[in-house]
Design a protein that fits this description.
This protein has 193 residues and is of the alpha+beta class. It has one domain: NADH Oxidase, CATH 3.40.109.10. The protein is built from 7 helices and 6 strands; from the N terminus they run ββααβααβαβααβ. It has a 4-stranded antiparallel sheet. Strand 1 and strand 2 form a beta hairpin. Helix 1 crosses helix 5 and helix 2 packs across helix 5. It binds flavin mononucleotide. The site of flavin mononucleotide has 9 residues, from strand 5.
């Protein structure tokens, strides 16, 4: 794995990755995005089905439209969302993609027993590769309903049979020096037999 030509160990990539929600406007180039997709498809895949498909969305107007639709759906289905979170997620200035330059939607046209698992594994590979390349990323689960909305799919040009599973924003972090991995509890082992 590389960061600006320097190698990053897998251990450092796993330990150092964190959600990034603040990006510079610069668009990662196509070759870089292709390397992320190549890393994604190295994920394990049940029955070797490779059910993942990728939508790479850079069109700002389209990202804005999907964000607005996501917010409208959050507002309409606010049950289960704490009131302060719902207020944050539906505020006028809130953008579900944090104005990231690129959204990569990992999804499938062949839903099945393990298709979601394959897509999530591909998404994690993609995010680790992004981190190793000096890019930031974040899963945007809040956008899932909007991305699977028939009107949004039609407007975006997504295949009608595509199901979004793991939406991931990607971009150059605005403040790379300030990024810190978030803490984790120690592994809770329920059995060592
Ligand atoms: C399934 C899933 C959905 C997520 N959805 C969102 C989201 O909609 N918006 C967001 O800002 N972060 C989202 N995140 C990112 C998490 O908030 C983040 O991974 C978590 O706080 C841990 O921080 P870290 O990734 O920096 O370790 C999501 C993460 C996962 C795994």
């Amino acid at each position: 794995m590389t960061v600006s030509g320097r190698e990053m160990s897998l251990r450092d990539a796993v330990a150092g990755r964190c959600a990034v929600r603040d990006f510079v406007a610069q668009m990662p180039d196509d070759a870089l995005l292709d390397r992320l997709l190549q890393a994604a498809v190295r994920a394990p895949t049940a029955m070797h089905e490779e059910p993942w498909r990728f939508a790479v969305i850079r069109d700002r107007n389209l990202l804005n439209r999907i964000s607005e639709r996501a917010k409208a759906l959050i507002a309409a289905r606010a049950e289960g969302v704490p009131p302060d979170a719902a207020a944050t997620f539906t505020a006028k200035e809130f953008h579900v993609f944090y104005n990231a330059p690129v959204l990569i939607v990992v999804g499938t046209e062949a839903p099945g027993r393990f298709a979601d698992a394959d897509c999530w594994l591909a998404a994690e590979n993609l995010m680790l590769a992004a981190h190793a390349e000096g890019l930031g990323s974040c899963v945007i689960g809040l956008a899932l309903d909007a991305l699977n909305d028939a009107d949004v799919k039609r407007a975006a040009g997504l295949p009608a049979g595509f199901t979004a599973v793991a939406p991931v924003i990607v971009g150059v972090p605005a403040h790379p020096a300030a990024l810190r991995p978030t803490p984790r509890k120690p592994p809770q082992v329920v059995l060592r037999a």
